[in-house]
Structure to design on (228 residues):
């Protein structure tokens, strides 16, 4: 690479006769030889590029619950990669493996994976309380053959325009519910403000193994009143 300091060529830039000119600090002009971009487009590159396009289409086809599952998975792994990034990487890996090694076993990435030892909570659905009073009912479904504790804290009320909240959740609101196997199990949380928006943070632990936990789930719900 050559370096030229001159006011005569101060406006020159771009490609000229096999050379590329571009600006450095001050009045310096940097010159390097033009190199054709290397793009061999090998069969493996072709597979990977097609798989990346397929991953984008497959992500859009996932249900909101499955996308949230991938986001939970990514958050618990740490780092900066999103749920979509983890899904895409898994999709590309599995697509490549199935094509290159047709005799192997490659599990498709549609269903969100769960970290080893983590409890599988399938859904937490808010609704109208069954008992008289003002609050929220929750129905919890899980895929575990065991009973577990649901540890719940909440924050609110907020007005109806509030759609997102990540904390803090006051420990004074801690509620402990036993979720029996096999589920689903419903329970009420009462004593709330009618029409108020609340955010509930759920975590679950195995009653038989205290250190086996679920990922953290945050659920938005609107308090409603059930008459006696």
């Amino acid at each position: 690479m050559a370096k030229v300091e001159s006011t005569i060529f101060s406006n020159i830039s771009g490609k000229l006769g096999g050379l590329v000119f571009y600006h450095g600090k001050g009045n310096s002009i940097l010159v390097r030889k033009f190199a054709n971009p290397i793009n061999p487009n090998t069969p493996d590159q072709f597979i990977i590029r097609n798989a990346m396009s397929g991953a984008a289409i497959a992500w859009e086809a996932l249900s909101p619950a499955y996308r949230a599952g991938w986001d939970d998975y990514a958050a618990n792994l740490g780092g900066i990669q999103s749920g979509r990034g983890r899904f895409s990487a898994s999709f590309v890996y599995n697509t490549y493996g199935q094509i290159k090694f047709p005799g192997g076993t490659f599990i498709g990435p549609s269903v969100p994976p769960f970290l080893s030892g983590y409890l599988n909570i399938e859904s937490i659905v808010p609704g109208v309380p069954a008992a008289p009073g003002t609050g929220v009912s929750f129905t919890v479904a899980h895929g575990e053959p065991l009973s577990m504790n649901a540890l719940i804290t909440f924050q609110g009320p907020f007005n109806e325009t509030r759609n997102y909240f990540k904390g803090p959740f006051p420990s004074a609101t801690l509620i402990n519910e036993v979720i029996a196997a096999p589920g689903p199990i419903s329970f009420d949380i009462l004593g709330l403000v009618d029409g108020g928006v609340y955010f509930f943070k759920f975590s679950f632990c195995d009653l038989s193994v205290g250190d086996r936990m679920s990922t953290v789930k945050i659920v938005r719900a609107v308090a409603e009143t059930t008459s006696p």
User: Anything to note?
Assistant: The chain has three domains: 2-33, 43-100, 121-226. The chain is about 20% helix and 35% strand. The two ends are 84 Å apart (CA to CA). Residues 14 and 21 are 5 Å apart (CA to CA).
